[in-house]
Amino acid sequence: MGKNLFSVPIFFIVFRETLEAAIIVSVLLGLAEQIVQEDPDRISGINRTPAVVVEDSNDKGESGSDSSPTPPDAVFEDDEVQRKRLIRKLRIQIFSGAAIGFLIALAIGAAFIAVWFTQASNLWAKSEELWEGIFELIAALMIFVMGITMLKMDRAKAKWRLKLQRAFRNSTVRDGEAQSGKWALFILPLITVLREGMEAVVFVGGVSLGQPATSIPIAAIVGLICGLIIGFIIYEFASRTTLTIFLIAMTNLLLLIGAGLFSRSVGAFQEHAWNNLLGADVDDAGGDGPGSYRVQGNVWHLDCCNPEDNLDNEGWSVFNALFGWTNNATLGTVLSYVFYWLAVIVVLIFMKFNEGRSKFFGVESAAGTRRRVRREKQAEQTNEINSASVAI
Amino acid sequence: MYRLVPVPGESSFMGFPISCFNFLLAGVQEIWWNITYVDDANPDGLFERRVIGVNNTWPPPPMDVNTTDSLLVHVTNSIDKPTTLHHHGMFFNSTSWMDGAEGVTECGIPPGESFDYVVPINSSGQWGTYWVHAHASGQYVDGLRAPVVIHPPKEVHSYDEEFTVILGDWYHDEHSVLLNKFISIANPGGAEPVPDSGLIYFAQNASYLPPISGTSPSSVTSAVGFNENATLPFEPGKTYRLRVVNTSGFAMFFFWIDGHDMRIIEVDGTDVEEFPIDMISVTVAQRYSILVTARNDTSSNWAIHANMDTDMFDTVPDALNPNVTSSITYSSSASVTDNGFVDEYSTVEDTLLVPSDKINPPPSTQTVELEVLFDTMDDGTNHAMFNGITFNSPLVPSVFSELSLGSNASVASAYGPTAFVLNHMDVVDIVIKNGDAGKHPFHIHGHKPFLVGRATDYTSDDPTLNPPISDNQTNPVRRDTVHIPSMGSATLRVVADNPGVWLLHCHIEWHLEAGLAVQFVEAPLEAQQQASRVPQVMYDHCQTLGKPISGNAAGHASTTDLSGWRLGPYQQQLGWHAKGIWAMTGCVLTAVLGMVTVIWYAMGGSISEEEMEHEVKEELDRKARLKGKLFGVFQSGNRS
Q1: What is the largest distance, in Å, between two alpha-carbon atoms of chain B?
Q2: ipTM, two decimals
Q3: Structural domain for B143, as ranges
Q4: What is the C-alpha to C-alpha distance for residues B616 and B622, in angstroms, rounded to an integer?
Q5: Which positions in chain B touch A161 (Cβ < 8 Å)?
Q6: Considering the entire predicted model, what is its pTM?
Q7: Which of A294, B64, B166, B218 has the most CB atoms at less than 10 Å from its CB?
Q8: For residue B596, what are the CA distances in angstroms to A251, A348, A355, B583?
């Protein structure tokens, strides 16, 4: 049941992509508000040499525009009302852009999956295990990349803010026309959501190929809702620390799934080889117990707990989807599971080192050196300022 | 019955006028069998293959013997592997080593060597229909098989003429090739090789009936008619005895004759009271004699049907015709009436047969239960087991162990894990329970046990399905090969009056090779008294083949030390064992380590919000510059 109606990997993929889209949209919302606050003319269309102002603030702007000066409140009494109206208008733009992007992604995704399951399914019907193995392998590798990049999502907010600011600025500067700035706040979320949506479609497509089509909708919808809720919570309430903790939990879950998928893909390849070996007698080797598996290279075989037994798997399929559980482990599946995690460990150590957040046997990476130098410089400056103020 | 004229195709050696010997050596019929390969035999007309024949001919000549004579078979092995001859159903009382079961009663005749099998027919009190076949590495499936007919001075039933009807399944590949496929990790379900065709041919007076004139069968076997090319000549009004023997490696046959009634009068060498029947089922190695009274009209010839039981086959290939037909000819000008199909196959209820020579068995003194099981073993191949143990041929033939172990010979463990020791004149009920999904023909050597009971479901408490065995039996049927359907059982009462070692096994050759056998070590101390009668050449053969000739099954003077003898495979032990537990621990450990690394990566060595933004900006600037450069190059290129 579990496997047929709820695909755990698909849930997590949709969840993750939704979360990312939600973060981007929320950044955009914040950005819009900020722009209106500091520079409403650019949006409203009154030409007041806007580009220079924005550029200035950005070139300085370590911490964005928070520190940049806002126009004095006293200048226009109507401004406050106008701004609020403007912000509302912009929000509507952003949300409608996101909604349209989502709809397009949904349409393409539905078409994509429909084509997969009606046309391409003939492709792998003949040697199901082989295809299952290939798709599980693809999914495992995708999840590997996804899980690891997800850990950097606490930096996504900053990244996206800068990126969007830049994109926004570029579009206004290049066109020189104020109208396009208005469209930017519509097009950017549209493209963002569409992009994340397409990513999700590709991932879902990749992962779902080994699974029945019925397992997609519920998992996707639940993933979508969860992603939106968590995205909203993160945006509204959470500090970066809570986000980090949340990301750690999510990544670990994703990697557990990924390791399981990797191990299962090796299992599927071995199963395929086994079926080839049996040839015509493959029908005799169903189920569990002696004769259903290859003895050579087997590590454990239980005459129960088979996640692929559709009639009576008693939740083992969930265990299988989450952790790659099998009642028939081989050297290949065990080693692949272990090596997946070893790869995670090696990559993470390397990344942390490369980002300059950790030393490796006393060696520091370029990024680390840069940051240290910059920190030292800043420390010097503060010291100088401090000493200067002391001197005064 | 002695042959006076050489049979066409046989060497003159074989056709030597034996009557001279008869005159000189009264009471001994001598036969010379030079076991040879015969190339390009094609009895079914479908495929030419190498077979194992005798004196460069195939099929091996049928034997006809009188009970007044002893049979002496001079065998020369001219093939490239050890061989034996087993006279199926013969008692060999106290001379177990003549039984011909490779690994149990002898080491086998090495290539190029000879051996004389003495079959003491004049003293065994046996007559009827038997057969002879190789009992070594499946050679009989490759063709080394022939009927043996033993004539008493006066038959119980009267008839005008007799024929032997030889049935057999036929493979186009050699047995060793098929065996490698059968016992293989690629065949964990143990699907037996399916025969490529079936054969029926006839013999009379120690020679095979030739093909119908006008047909042109394959040259190698042109002297013998097979299937459609074979026919039985009947004359109106006469009564014929047909001795039906199934020499198959695997398949059971259903046999009937269109337009004729049948009466069973003999089963496995036991004369029985006439038992009318429409169709007989003959498993591998079983024999029935039937009386058939010829019709009074000669307007039509009639089809003889021998259909293989395809229920036994894993698959029925499209190319296989499991239904063999031959004919009874009244007139060569008439056409054959073939009524074709039957609605339903039926098996002979052999417990209903009443032996003519009435013997009430003694009450049993002990019971041996044997449960049949097939499974994929711990080496991934499928094997058969009695009571969970698969049979392995001992290194020392068990007969030689029995004769050389002294007082230890009474200890069953000395013969390996699948032996039972019986005391002299014990009366043993052997209950064979077929827990397998298929049907099996079980054969015990050296005896013709009383079939004292059958159960349709041996696991049942219902006395109609699993009736209790009565100690006081009135003349139950006696036969040496008993058919047991799935989940059924048969109880064989054996009187341990034959010192020696006797194999009990499934006569489906694939199943014997898969280990469906046990040994009965009978009256070891009595057997040892005959030890000096063992021909020295048997020990020489063992030594030629590099096998030990004394001690326990592994050649040691011990009852327990079987070192050097490779036993098994064994049943799989599923579940959590050390290997699995270690692997699981390793998986969990690396997963935990990985997750800890994730935490370590995300926490600590942190960067401030400001630094992060700075770095992102730098990265974006770098990208923008790169883009700008490329764009610039592109633009400048355009300008020029």
Answers
A1: 124
A2: 0.81
A3: 18-67+127-352
A4: 10
A5: 613
A6: 0.81
A7: B166
A8: 11, 11, 19, 20
